[in-house]
């Protein structure tokens, strides 16, 4: 999408709770011919290693700060990204 993005990290998966009409993710369930699942935390995403100095697009396919997303999931996502900080 943007040339400076090197990795994506999508720990929260399933049906986006925003429900924006213009969002491309709403059409994805039709494209794959199956409804989007309820919201879940994908721990497998925490195994990814984007390396240092890369630009991570967090939540490229869903909202991380949507109502009812557990704060614990937000902290786990950002703590994972912090492991690869250049500082």
Describe, in plain words, how this protein is organized in 3D.
The protein has one domain. It has helices spanning 24-31, 71-82, and strands at residues 7-9, 12-13, 40-41, 56-58. The mean pLDDT is 78. With 87 residues, the protein is of the alpha+beta class.
Task: Describe the structure using short key phrases.
87 residues; alpha+beta; two-stranded parallel sheet; 23% helix; 11% strand
**Number of alpha- plus pi-helical segments:** 2
Q: Which residues sit in consecutive blocks of at least 5 with pLDDT less than 50?
A: none
Sketch the topology as an H/E string, one letter per element: EEHEEH
Number of domains: 1
**Number of strand segments:** 4
Helix-strand layout with pairing:
Elements: E1 7-9, E2 12-13, H1 24-31, E3 40-41, E4 56-58, H2 71-82
Please provide a brief summary of the model.
By secondary structure, the chain is α+β, with helices and mostly antiparallel strands. Helices cover 23% and strands 11% of the residues.
């Amino acid at each position: 999408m943007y040339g400076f993005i090197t990795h994506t990290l999508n720990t929260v998966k399933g049906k986006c709770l925003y429900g924006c009409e213009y969002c491309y993710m709403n059409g994805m369930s039709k494209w794959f011919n199956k409804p989007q699942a309820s919201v879940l935390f994908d721990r497998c995403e925490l195994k990814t290693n984007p390396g240092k100095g890369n630009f991570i697009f967090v939540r490229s396919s869903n909202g991380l700060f949507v109502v009812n997303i557990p704060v614990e999931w937000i902290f786990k996502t950002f703590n994972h990204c912090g492991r690869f900080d250049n500082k």
